[in-house]
Amino acid sequence: MRLLKSFLIEVFDLLSFLVFVWGIVLFIRFFLFNPYTVQWSSMMTTIQDGDVIIVDKITSQFRDYRRWDVVVFVPPGQENAFIKRIVWLPGETIKIHEWEVYVCLTAEQEITSCEKLPESYLSDGSVTGLPCGNKGKDTLTVDQEDSYLVFGDNRPWSTDSRCCFLGHWCSEDAPYLAPKDHILWRAALRILPIGNIGTF
C-alpha cells in the first residue's frame, strides 16, 4: 500500500509538472510568440519560401510599427496572410524614380529635394517598379492614420502596396495600404533552416 501511494504521488507530481509546462507553452503561443512558415518568395533574399520564423504578438501593444519592420497581415477584403516590410509610415509620400524609392513631404515635392531611401536589405540589382496600372503615376501616399505602405524585398516578384495586393492592374479606389488593425504579427526571428538563424 505504501509503495502504491508513493507511486501515485510521483505520477501526480509528473502530471502537475506537464500541465504547468503545457500551460506556459500555450500562454507563450497565444499571447507572445508563435512559429509561422513563410510561403512564396516575395521576401527573398531576406526570407526564403519555406523558412520558419517566430512572430511577435506583443511588441505592437507597447510601440507603433516602425520603418523596416517585417510584418504578417491580411489585406483589406482578402483572406490570405501576406508577409512584407513596412517601408513608409503614416503621413509620408513616396516616389519611385529611375527604379529607386524616395521619401517626400508632399506629392508635389520635386524628386531632387526628396530623400532617397536606403534599402540595404535588397539584393544586388533589385529594382522597384512603378505601381500597377499607374498610367505614368509614380507616387503613393500614406494618407490614413495607423496604415502603412508595405513592399516585398523581392521587388520584381512581390504583390504588395504597388499592386493593391492583387498582382495585376490596380483601380483608383482599390486599397493599397496595410491598416494597423489588419497586421497580425511582427517577424522577430528565423529559426529554420538552422544555418540561417537570425533576427530581422
Biggest β-sheet description? 8 strands, antiparallel
Low-confidence stretches: none
Q: Mean pLDDT, nearest integer?
A: 85
How many helices in DSSP terms?
1
Task: Determine the CATH superfamily of the largest domain.
Answer: Umud Fragment, subunit A
Q: Categorize the overall geometry.
A: elongated
End-to-end Cα distance: 58 Å
Q: What is the highest CATH level, the class of the largest domain? A: Mainly Beta
CATH architect. name of the largest domain: Ribbon
Oligomeric description of these chains: single chain
Task: Write structural notes for this entry.
With 200 residues, the chain is an alpha+beta fold. It has one helix spanning 2-32, and strands at 33-37, 52-56, 70-73, 82-88, 93-97, 100-104, 115-116, 139-141, 147-151, 178-179, 183-192, 198-199. It has 2 domains: 1-34; 38-199, Umud Fragment, subunit A (Ribbon). It contains 1 helix and 12 strands; from the N terminus they run αββββββββββββ. The strands form 2 sheets. Strands 1, 2, 3, 4, 9, 10, 11 and 12 form an 8-stranded antiparallel sheet that branches. A hairpin with a 5-residue loop joins strand 11 and strand 12 (198-199). The protein starts with a helix and ends with a strand.
